[in-house]
Give the backbone structure.
Amino acid sequence: QVQLVESGGGLVQAGGSLRLSCAASGSIGIIGDMGWYRQTLGKQRELVASITRSGSTNYGDFVKGRFTISRDNAKNTVYLQMSSVRPEDTAVYFCQGRHIVASRDYWGQGTQVTVSS
């Protein structure tokens, strides 16, 4: 079993910055693509950013240019650097990792990010 644990969420002022971390542990094997998704009440979970093991990235249009995803394969950790945050960024942010051998996705429990105006 693979466990993903997010950290770094909290309250931040509009225009400020926040850094989220997600560490994988357990029977990790090979984790391929990893990503950050977010979800607010009444909305479907949406992609924030994703990154391959080799470092290729993809971003949702609503955050591109403000957020940066990165990963440290040696630490089995993926990060989301959030800058110039807006109140509409308020959501629960979930970490996702693809186990390429088992061909399934693992998800963290989520961390709350609240942006005050």
DSSP finds no helices and eleven strands in the chain. The mean pLDDT is 94.
